[in-house]
Amino acid sequence: MCSIISVGAFAQQIDADSLNVHNIQEVVVIGGHAVSAKESKPLSSIDEYLQKSSKIEMIKRGSYAWEPLLNNMPTERTVVTIDGMRIFGACTDKMDPVTSYVEVSNLSEAEIVSGAQGSEHGNTIGGAINLRRKLGEFGPQKWDFALNSGFESVNQQKIYGGSAAYKSPVFYADVSGMSRSAENYFAGNHTEVPFSQYKKINLSGNAGLKLGSNQWVETSLIYDKATNVGYPALPMDVSLAEAFIGSLKYRLVPVSDYLTGWETKIYYNNITHRMDDTQRPSVPIHMDMPGWSKTYGYYSQLTAELPDHHFKFNLNGFSNLSTAEMTMYPANSAEKLMFMYTWPQVRTLFQGVYLEDHFLLSSKSSLQLSGSLGFHSNKVESDFGLNSLQIFYPEMAAQKNRLLKSVAAKYRFEGKQLTFGFGGGFSDRAPSVSEGYGFYLFNSFEKYDYIGNPHLKNESSIELNAFAGLKSEGFSADLSASYFHISDYIVGKVLGGLVPMTIGAHGVKQYEALDFATIFDASLTTKVKLLQFLEWTNQLKYARGKDFEKKNLPFMSPFSYRSSLLFHRNKLSAEVSAMGNSKYNDFAAEYGESETSAFAVFNANIGYQFGFNGMKLLTKIGVENIFDKLYTTYSDWNKIPRPGRNFYLNINVNF
Ligand SMILES: [Cu+2]
Which residues place a Cβ less than 5 A from the ion ligand 1? Predict the structure, then answer.
């Protein structure tokens, strides 16, 4: 299947008529059924794949379920979907981003769209990540099987997986499963990081049935369950994070001469999240904090083609119910339990429409215009929760409606060697459930309890972006930059005179809006073919964020780099790589940040693909952080150290 490079340097599509991908800035190939021989660690987590993208950084609270930052913006400012489906985590502490509910065994790639252009599946400021499952296909009758296994020494991680796929001219089906279990990991200098263990299983199935020569239906299920997940950077762990994700899709192609495709999907997902502090040694007061998130939704997408015009029309909507509770058990069992809603059964309804036209100005240049309009409503369904929030906002109503808008334009020139383009956009977003309705949510990084603010205005962004690419025999370079001016930028501000609920917290913060903030980021990726079988890839990134008083914003990447030398000849591949950051000087003290030292780590791997009797066996052996460096980065929550030296072995068999 996909034996392509892992991160196609921003795929600023060279061929203008690859219609469905023209606004995608970057594609991270994950592999799906078969894995690529060039991949340095084929059985990496999805998070490890994503962090190689030039647009994505990861906030780490442990070794599991990292939070993706797109253009250095957290998940409130971005949209992450699985095959176009909206899914919302059920944790008030962001322990379960959408990306934590999928596995390498069922994904084929992640499509990354930067900025306002990413508003197809919902309004976004930073952009969108759509995780695409591997596509089933009809064809001559055939079975395919794969088995995967891996081991990592740094945390005794054991990985087992398998998949089976069947296709025929009128029917296809595939099932896959994967399990991972890991003990605590060791940072550099044999420093054990307690509470960093985890266990996870992921099962998925997919089946398609042809209804006619040009139409079919597909149903898809994912079940993911993580247990005993430690979060060393947080005061609590997770005893259960469970997701059920199901969908039914109908596709008709082509509809007529002009209408090239029509796809409609209905979906449902149910997330359960249970936080656990019973394993921690000294808990001043024991707490139970479960959360639930249920989403029903649909989308219907139509594509049309006229001479020089490619249209896309997408109607989509969802209904989400987010609930989170906290029960405190006082040490003296004669005292009463304390119960509250940290998310007071918040119902979010969204109905949106998205339109896009990509039209060719000449054989080499094109313009893409897109826009969306959405109706967004939040309603607090728990009276008890509403009464609690009304302590802070006496005049607050249960329901609040908003209108969300976005427009974007991008010009692109595609020559034989030179590609360049520039664009701009406007988009806004509604506050997240935590930002609008959270009740005493403890932020362990800043050490403040947070109160949501239902009166927040929409946060809105004006964005400018540009890119340039150069390509010739054996050499390519891609430069890309974005600038965001974000008005009514939502942050936490100290609310004086209030006693925090969490023991040890410094105080209470309330979500408020800054006048504005600006975020600039840039990346450069180069590839040089030194010899026919030797490729040198470099990636540089930088981001800078400031508020309206020129004070720093948190989680902005300092100068960071990755460099790798890949040897690939016939069935043998070998790679040495380095990655590092400069010193994090422009930290945001107001949000709990401090300086972080520069670091560099080195990795190496070697792989060989055996083939016999129609069977393919890929083995990969590697070592990460060769010199066992003890280090932490600007995006490690509470400065937990990263893993030290790690030997790994990955084995994949396809037959
Ligand atoms: Cu949690």
Answer: 91, 93, 95, 275
The number of C-alpha atoms within 13 Å of 440 and in the hemisphere containing its C-beta is 20
The string of pLDDT tens digits covering residues 446-481 is 999 999 999 999 999 999 999 999 999 899 999 999
Range(s) of the domain holding residue 373? 7-654
CA distances from 476 to 471, 535, 579 (A): 4, 11, 20
- How far, in Å, is the centroid of ligand 1 from the Cα of 349? 24
What total number of domains does the chain contain? 1
Instruction: Please give the pLDDT value at position 9.
Output: 32
Question: 343 CA distance to ligand 1 centroid (A)?
Answer: 12
529: domain CATH number is: 2.40.170.20
- pLDDT score, position 22: 57
Span from the CA of 10 to the centroid of ligand 1 (angstroms): 33
Contact partners, residue 590, CB within 8 Å, separation at least 6: 551
Q: Is the pTM of this model over 0.85?
A: yes
Spacing, Cα 434 to ligand 1 middle (Å): 13
Residue 278 carries which side chain, given as an amino acid letter? Answer: T
Residue 38 scores a pLDDT above 90: no
pLDDT digits (tens, 9 = 90+) for 198-216: 999 999 999 999 998 889 9
Do the beta carbons of residue 444 and residue 636 sit within 8 Å? Answer: no
- Give the bridge partners for 296, in sequence order: 268, 319
Does the residue 235 lie in any domain? yes
